Amino acid sequence: MKLVVGLGNPGSQYAGTRHNIGFDVLSRVAVRWNAASPRTKFQGEASEVAIGTEKVLLLWPLTFMNVSGSSVLAARDFYKLPHADLLVICDDLNLPPGKIRLRAKGSSGGQKGLEDIIRRLGSDDIPRLRIGIGAVPAGRAATGYVLGKFTTEEQELIAPAVIKAAEAVEAWVKQGLAACMNQYNAD
Questions:
Q1: Measured between alpha carbons, how far is 95 from 158 in angstroms, rounded to an integer?
Q2: In terms of Cα–Cα distance, which of 187, 168, 166 is closest to 179?
Q3: Residues taking part in catalysis
Q4: What is the pLDDT along the chain (187 residues), one digit of tens a residue?
Q5: Complete domains list, the chain, with CATH
Q6: Rounded to 5 degrees, what are φ and ψ at 62?
Q7: d(Cα 73, Cα 10) in Å, to the nearest integer?
Q8: Secondary structure of the chain as H, E, C letters
């Protein structure tokens, strides 16, 4: 069993925002692998899917971004999963729009949802897939930026990145983190 968590904020007002790109990638994975309809579970929406021969739980925490850790902790503990079988998908202000990066561990990089997960799980040894949303423009507040929608120009970079990130999730499940990092961190 593997657990893949897409970070975002619940509610239609947040759909399509920079901060919800984790939800978007997870939804793409769900469609690609014909996931069952999500059920309310672990303070979120959860759906099981088979990717290859591996059973995978897709989890969209509904706790709001900054307190995502409680949802992830509940799912991890229920399935008694090691951190190596967990993948968190989130936005990253430090990467150019559309760039993806996988890491096995490390700091939150200022991403509040990931920060809460690290705190609640008691370790930074948590694999993560970050999708670049670009730096906050001068004169704008970070909160307004991450909760804003992508511009038309950014969307041209983000749409293919969501597809690529969903493919990376599949590679992580089937081949493991090292192979996935070699393939998707190359560009």
A1: 12
A2: 168
A3: 19
A4: 999 999 999 999 999 999 999 999 999 999 999 999 999 999 999 999 999 999 999 999 999 999 999 999 999 999 999 999 999 999 999 999 999 999 999 999 989 999 999 999 999 999 999 999 999 999 999 999 999 999 999 999 999 999 999 999 999 999 999 999 999 997 6
A5: 2-184 (3.40.50.1470)
A6: -110, 25
A7: 18
A8: CEEEEECCCCCHHHCCEHHHHHHHHHHHHHHHCCCCCCEEECCEEEEEEEECCEEEEEEEECCCHHHCHHHHHHHHHHHCCCHHHEEEEEEECCCCCCCEEEECCCCCCCCHHHHHHHHHHCCCCCCEEEEECCCCCCCCCHHHHHCCECCHHHHHHHHHHHHHHHHHHHHHHHHCHHHHHHHHCCC
